Amino acid sequence: MPSSLTSIDKTPSPSSFNSVGQSPSFIGDNNSLEYPNARSYHGYEDPRIDDYNQSRCPLSFQGIASGGDAPVPTIDPIPSDHAPIPANVPMHADAVPVPFDTPVPADVPILPVPRNTSASAHTPAPADAPLLADAPIPANASMPAHTPVPSGTLVPADEPVPTDAHIPVDTPIRVEPMSSQGTAAGGDAPTHVDAPVPAHADVPGDTLVPAQAPTPAANAPPRKSHSLKQEHFTLHPLFTMKRLDQYLHNSNEKLLAEVAKLHYDDEDLNLDDLIDPALRKQMDSNSLKIFSKTAYNCLKEKRVERPNIDQILKGLENALQLQISHDKPEDYVDAGEEKERTTNQLTKGGQLERLKIPFDKIKKATNDFRDEPIGSGGYGDVYRSKLEVSVEEKGDFSTKWRTVAIKSIRLYAEGKEGFDAEIALLGTCTHPNIVSLLGFCNEDSNLILVYEHAHNKSLNDYLGNNYNSTHLTWVQRIKIGIDIANGLDYIHTRVADEERIVHRDIKSANILLNKNWVAKIADFGLSRFHGADSEEKSVRTDNFAGTKYYACPEYAKSGRLKTAVDIYSFGVVLFELLSGKLAYDQSYMTEGKSGIADVARQQKTIHEMVDPKIMEEVYELTSTLHKGPNQDSLRTYSEIAHLCIELDQDQRPTAKKIAEELKKALSFQEKNKDNLQIPFEEIKSATQSFSRENRIGGGGFGKVFKGEVTRGNGNTTIVAKCLDRSQGQGDLHFLTELEILFEYKHENIIRLEGYCNEKNEKVIVYEYACNKSLDRHLNNVSLTWIKRLKICVDIARGLAFLHGGAPTKEMVIHRDIKCANILLNGDWKAKISDFGLSAIIATNGREVSKLVGTVGYVDPQYESTGFFTERSDIYSLGVLLFEILYGQLVVPTSKDYRPLVTSIFLDKIRDEKSRGSIVFKDIKEQIDPQSLSIFGVIVGKCLSYSRQRRPTAEEVLRQLEKSLEFQEDYEIWAPILPKDYAKILEFSTYSGNYSTKTKKDLYDMFSKGILLKDDKVLFSLGSNGERNEMVSATTFAYENHSPHDMWFIVPESRFQKVAKMLDTSNLMIKINTRPQFLSQNTVYGVHLVFKFCDSKKVSSNPMYVDLKYQMGNETLHAYFSQWRDDKWMMIELYRSSNQQEDVVFEFLLESLSPHYGRELDAIYVEGIEFRTIDNASLDILLF
Hints:
- It contains 27 helices and 43 strands.
- The chain is α+β, with helices and mostly antiparallel strands.
- The model is unreliable at 1-101, 110-147, 149-165, 169-251, 330-350, 532-542 and 618-625 (pLDDT under 50).
- Pfam families: Pkinase (PF00069), PP2 (PF14299).
């Protein structure tokens, strides 16, 4: 489980670095820390590292750290008195006592031994041995005069510096007198912190130079508890454990980790035996419980069972929070600035009195909370038990015994807040898809919630690598999605006049499943009430809540809360259901991606995300077996899921809309597969007994007829292909085409309408394409180059789907791609048809068969290899694309086919000079050179003799889309883009390189508006391509207002600031402006753009107001304000033809009065906009 989004500093502390000064590196799946070349400290090493186990040395406690009686850990002395210590081995004086006369190489970084250790006090240190920072220098250590102390070294407190010690300049040290237990500093030794000591200064021998704050004396008063607001905290294990030397020499030779695990596991032993009694009295039991459990999990034998660093930090933070609240509970009474419903407020007057349960009953039901928890969350543990609770039946309340889930809330600020939130929210909710609150207890410091029990646990137990023998079918997954959508719709809408609820932490772990697999939304501890008066209204919260990988990115950045926040999280859960993986699965953490939502947004197809278990589900289809979910069901499901994770909150659907779409997906999956069967007599009637008048085509496979069948309340035109068995079209061809059309549904694949398999008649019924086949239109002059490119893109997209874009483990090789098999509907959308010769094979497989296809289109490598691959279709596609550019068939009939001549002619597409000679003459003048160049290159690659050099269908699709983009830029967007757009951009705040943008991108940018003149003017293009300008309110003069008190930031505005006018009865806003980039000879309306500060909803109806203003010497009134698409209002002041340049517009806005029965409202003024008026005549201007 990922932790909730909190600020956690993962930076290792200085003490976490290894012994040779290297930084730790993060490795592995669990963000584990690896220290390259780090030494193993005996007694603490991983028991799985055998090399370290062989040299294990028990931990002992000897010596005094820095005064007082505080024990310091060291390691047993080196066995030999004269054993050499290898160079470059770092040794710490607090841990490794060096035996007397042990030779130490000059370049060994060493820290001298502290006082009272087992080592000799006179262990010599070499003259050039560098002394590491933070090392206590022994009182009587033999140090040569002028021993160099490195610059920047901090000399620890309470340790005397030898008289002759040489201290370089700028060495940061602190000088202060000794404590009462030491020798007082003589003279006027400075006592301030970080006093630099000059180079070569002689520090008197009785002066103490501390590196950090002096260690408290044994009888010093205890330090105050740290506040939770501290960014870092430090654990002191040496002071929390008793002396362990009593365990060092027993027969078992158990080390600290083994002893601690033994006391934790064995009920006959007590962990308290290892803890200092005085310290144990200070400990909160729950804090100790979490701390010890965290430590115990770190000691698990198997690495996979150990927690990662995030989980460890979370456990230690919880332990610290509990301890601090135990020491100073008053620090955790959170008054809050938000409008909260507390438990006391809710229960006042008996509103929820019936749900109160005495603590004694709960304590008894949970065996004094000694039962094993069934779960644990951010706020406490959850227990399963039997309890007598109040239940409602037909409007009456009675008490009954129920299996319940009991959540014990930890007593600290967030826990108390979550407790209050769940009472406030669940206490007012009754819905089958919302977990029911059956009771609560808030006696003394006990905060307990009692819910209905979810027999099948939570949804996340069935996702990812969690072991669970139960497999959720595709139908179950859709139903779970529908349940969640219904629950969200309830809390987001409820009764019209009541407040809505935003959950803020929708995730699979918070979706519970009862014994009937009904999904219920749970854990409302982070939820908030949201006003019911506006769907668009957002509420700003200072405290972000949610879980990483599920949380709405916009909410995480801005803190703006609305129901769309839950919709995004729900979308993540929908993709979890689809993939069978959790949102933070490692497969979704590749470069540039962070979670399942990122992956879903970046992928054009979803076949790689579908859970393989779903694909193994088998359904009956006529005489064949069909695997995997229904394609219509999968498509409908994925489309609504993608809308949920749109980055723009306004683009996300409501929960009600999601429920409707998921119900459609369910109906597609559950419908009877055989409802596509059409009786032969109905087809016969529809085609007028297969009359000659109804015949529209035919070939070796049989005959094709047009007909009309009744569907619902009307008739539908269809095409019926009757297979001719006399021509070899048997069951195999029939079933192959039927299976492909049923399985591979796509907008560029001809749609299957039905089939007939009776009376020895085999008929496949398709949708009708009214523009028939592509080969009929190659020389059609009305088929422009843009239309032809769009047809090319359609064909490539359909082929890419067949070659691997479908959510299956197989692919389809068509084996007969040609213009005659490309059908065109009324909108000229291309659809691939005729799959009678196709083959379904494994992805990247090959098909060995006799020669099939059409001469001129067949892969030339077939003759030498004897098999087809998907690259065989690419060659056929290349010929087809060549014909679309050429305007006629390359090989009109099989008699015209000359392999060598055809090959030479097709090679013309590769040569840029000869390429123009093959372009259809009626479209030659339309084509953009860059578009033609890209088209020619990719077609040439498709026609490569070598299959390895041919591109994939996906690559062909990308290049054709690029060619179409250049053609549309040339033909559509360039003509309507402002001719002086480069000059306009010079005045703008746009910092990018616009020369790399397409004309369409530039047009879209101008349509949305760009800021000019230091963000004072917003220039945009209207729907008709005319120019509009808005001048910021920051350029106006405000005669009765101070500019320092009136500027506000409003997210809905493109300007950095807008003006807030509190007194609309006395505006006195003087406007003097001159537009610069407006279109000449165009009628413009001059509008004031504003909005009421407390505006809650947008309406299509005009609002009646009275705006009084002066223009010249004339006093005027404007009465009707209109809503704009950007949620602002505008009211017209004037109309101008803009026939002159440099026209100055002057207005004095005096007052604005609403005429809808309300008091005067404050308004935001965004600016004055010059907007074109459609269909306005230059001859008649209305003022």
